[in-house]
Amino acid sequence: MTDDPAVLIDGLRVDRGGRPVLEGLSLAVRRGMVTGLLGPSGAGKSTLIRAIVGVQKVRSGSVTVLGHPAGSPALRRRVGYMTQAPSIYDDLTVTANLRYFARLFGAPGSRVTQVIEQVDLRADAHRPAGSLSGGQRSRVSLGCALVADPDLLVLDEPTVGLDPVLRRSLWRLFGELASEGRTLIVSSHVMDEASRCDELVLLREGAVLAQESPDALLEQTGAPDAEAAFLTLIDRAEQAGGTRPDEDRRAS
């Protein structure tokens, strides 16, 4: 495995609605890990994710993904993207949805069967996606992101609104995918999911507040959990004079 980061962001600036959302953000995401992108609503998580997958207009800075500029044609099959709202066709069955995306990406038909098993939808494979529960639809959307067998999987709030049992099963799957050598970036505003990640990137107001492993973050702050650690870091920044967090923190 190469030591080059899966994602390298340098001085990224993004405006939305006439105001800055990300201001000079720099970040490196290591390969073969589950990196949690955590922060409250409005912190800039979704904007950052869109920049990584190459669908966000940026003011300045660079985003390099797997050695290529974000959004490059060379990344078409190498990056899987799961949006917050399931991006699937309700009138198609689960299998038909995955077959459609497999054709788009040029993936073999055998990959569809593998992914249906992987996301635990075999019993619902022939049901229209529109008839499924919210949790099942999320798994179909995840399957569509996986069908190209990507090296990098970018998941925007994949567990929001799901019951604890389904959340646990999805996080178990994320860990299995990383163990196979894939890199996952998973955004969430649910701080208790932090312990399931290999590394955490805490965002606040469009800047990196911290980038650490869960254990290192707790040791650094002396906090009992990720939420308390996040609040501790905010308090420290404010006590230091209200300066913005270090935006140039990179993974080692």
TrEMBL record:
InterPro entries for this protein: AAA+_ATPase, ABC_transporter-like_ATP-bd, ABC_transporter-like_CS, P-loop_NTPase
GO molecular function, one term: ATP binding
Keyword line: ATP-binding, Nucleotide-binding
A Pfam family this chain is assigned to: ABC_tran
Residue intervals of the ABC transporter domain: 7-230
PANTHER family: ABC TRANSPORTER G FAMILY MEMBER 20 ISOFORM X1, ATP-BINDING CASSETTE, SUB-FAMILY H, MEMBER 1
Name of the protein in question: Multidrug ABC transporter ATP-binding protein
